[in-house]
Amino acid sequence: MSRLTILKISFRSAGVENVIYPVIISDGNEFILIDCGYPACLPILQQAATDNGIDLSQLTKVIITHHDFDHMGALAGLKRTYPNSKVLASAQEERYISGKQKSLRLEQAEAIYDTLPEDRKQAAKQFQRVLEEVETAEVDQTLNDGDIFPWCGGIEIIATPGHMPGHISIYHIESKTLIAGDALVAENGELAIANPQYTIDMMGAKKSIKKLLDYEIDTLICYHGGIVTREIKAALQKISTD
Asked: Can you give the pTM of this predicted structure?
């Protein structure tokens, strides 16, 4: 029998209080963390795990849904602290997580900089510096759409491009739980598509949401917004057709 633990992490970034929800799936053999938070938030992640009766030294795998800094920012420090853990990500995202290619989010920030009004440029430049300073980490195993692993009662990898081209979501078969990363957000308990400002391909994002209708989902966990358990299929249908 596996255990699914949702960590609530509060973290202040650029003067704004943010709450994120990394997930740990574990059984007697595997201990898998899905996404790991902002740069420098490793101590907060460790404390949240401890508060939930979890020892991160047992970590076997870290799955990164995509390379945004709030999802992989703590990855390099996590890997140094727990060197026996393996880093997993989609084949498309591996190049950015490992630093082989410049972050698409940084490219996006640089591209819009000159179009911004003067009163927003200082904050925009600060955001660019944050992205530039994110420490990269080697990916040990690449994942593809439809991969199914026996870990922790069964895990299926679902390619959900849109927010980022290589974005993945993780379906926990045993509990019928979808860990959506940034494919979706929860706002006051209601599902919505991720922030359009940070979605690279909105049409692709909606196609990804439509794809999720093929799964029986009892619980959906958004990295931003947390747990949704009510009327999931109806919400997915509405989002994918709006």
From this structure: 0.96
Tell me the pLDDT of the chain (242 aa) as tens digits: 899 999 999 987 666 788 999 999 999 899 999 999 999 899 999 999 999 999 999 999 999 999 999 999 999 999 999 999 999 999 999 999 999 999 999 999 999 999 999 999 999 999 999 999 999 999 999 999 999 999 999 999 999 999 999 999 999 999 999 999 999 999 988 899 887 788 889 999 999 999 999 999 999 999 999 999 999 999 999 999 88
What CATH number corresponds to the domain at position 114? Answer: 3.60.15.10
HSE-up of residue 48 (Cα within 13 Å, Cβ side): 21
Structural domain that includes position 217: 3-133+141-241
The set of residues, in sequence order, having a beta carbon less than 8 Å from that of 39 and lying 6+ positions away, is 69, 73, 74, 130, 133, 134, 135
